[in-house]
Predict the 3D structure of the following.
Amino acid sequence: MLCSIVLFIVLSDDDDPSAADARSQGTELSMGRSMSCHHVICLELKVKDLVPFSEKVIYRLFIARGMDIIQRGAEAEIRRGKWLGRDVIIKSRVPKSYRLPEMDRSLRNMRTRNEARLIHEAREAGVPTPIIYDIDTVNAEMTMEFIDGLRVKDELGRSAPDEVRDLLREMGRSIAYLHRCGIVHGDLTTSNMIMSKGRMWFIDFSLGSRCASVEEMGVDIHLLKESFQSAHPELLDRFHIILESYKENFERADEIVRKAKEIGSRGRYT
Ligand SMILES: Nc1ncnc2c1ncn2[C@@H]1O[C@H](COP(=O)(O)OP(=O)(O)OP(=O)(O)O)[C@@H](O)[C@H]1O
Ligand SMILES: [Mg+2]
């Protein structure tokens, strides 16, 4: 009889996990130095005919790495894979050789933590965002929930006018929720929004910040308009739907929209 036992061992916040021995079911594993903190080690044990584990255990160690790259951007690599049986996206900030190594590490690390924190805070503000499962500060990568759906960029192109209106309203409302909590996204484009389970999910907060000023929020709205100009020019005459919904859900919206217009005109005349 072949039976399969899957054990999950979560490492503590220990910078040197090689010191840790995992003891389970009489099996002892020494963890390699190459493994970084926070990783969850998944052990799959296959036991034949109930012979003692120490003799016949076949085990495989998985950490959430080495999965298919689905996108390679200027800053980050996006991989898709499984993590504790869940579909995940792993976003890694890749080292840049033109930066001093120490500075490079700290910058990548800081940006990863900043993005993870903003994703979490945005969700608290009422905006659907992926759950962050793991942050690896050694490799500047985060593991998050995979949102299974179409980018809003693609969804808008294939939706009927009524559906487009609903999408634009939801977009305006979510941006209002972010801004009224002082969060700016920093890269509001329809590629950074995904429709899934009937809701609009916001991703890619890598350029975001909190405690935002009127100017920063104005830039957010201005950049969204610019992204519509390039990606959805046919919808520009419906951009007002986003702004109406934004205004309905954020008491300072008038001021921000005025600022966004001012930023737009500055761009035109400088
Ligand atoms: N949680 C997620 N679920 C599903 N798809 C995702 C998720 N995160 C990222 N993606 C996919 O990967 C693409 C790129 O991700 P993201 O926008 O975070 O990276 P990026 O634009 O390359 O990053 P950056 O702007 O930080 O350099 C997204 O447009 C989306 O298609
Ligand atoms: Mg992006």
Notes: Residues 101-124 form the longest helix (24 residues). Confidence is low (pLDDT under 50) at residues 1-66.
